[in-house]
Amino acid sequence: MSSLGRMLGVLDLFDDTHLTRTADDISAALDVSLPTGYRYVRLLLEAGLLQRVEDSHYALGPRIILLDHYIRKADPVLREGIPVMRELVAATGFDCVASGLFGMQVLDTHREMGGAPPALAYGRGRPRPLFQGGAPKVLLATFAPAQLRKVFDARHDELVHSGLPAEWSEFRRYYAAIRKAGHYVSIGELEPQLAAVAAPILKADGGAWGAISLVFDTSRLSIVDLDKMVHLITEGASRIGGRLA
């Protein structure tokens, strides 16, 4: 990896369990000398990508907030999708969430809140489990068999732990059924008190721009018309996909 690549790798060292790092931590994690680690920290501080917090600890910097603002404005899915998401919220009273697949990370990118928004453990920027919940499943269901096989091989222990089939043939059939249905209903998979109806925003080549989901409390299941919810979410996803095309 180039020196620039290693320096940018510093940003990947921060997560929910490591909100701050010292220069010594960074040097050790990247397996570089202390002078090199301190140089990376200094350059990232100057760029605003890191900030000093306390006791020689560093956190991600304010420039990332600015960059996120530009990411939101440039995101074509949000530009075309937010008006449709607002219509879905108005029609159902439930939250509508947009999600995308970035590499092998599923991230929520936007949330339109309904009348009684539930507390969500995941929000914009926090990676979601790849094999649990509606959005990840409809996104993976758009993968070609060769792509899906790579996921199966690379993340086998994780998918089995999530309750998915351990054999490739059954795993493939599981996602083929979701692809054929064009939606997925998740009940308590990611958070036990929540249900979601998700659909992919399809590209012309069969891949996905992202996914949208209607999210609501499982206590509402007895009074929710799931068939209507499926129609609304799949029709909404289709409209967004049509606008993006």
UniProtKB/TrEMBL annotation:
Single Gene Ontology MF annotation: DNA-binding transcription factor activity
Keywords per UniProt: DNA-binding, Transcription, Transcription regulation
Domain HTH iclR-type: 1-62
Domain IclR-ED: 63-245
Keyword Cytoplasm in record: no
GO BP terms, alphabetized: negative regulation of DNA-templated transcription
Record-linked SMART domains: HTH_ICLR
Name recorded for this polypeptide: Bacterial transcriptional regulator
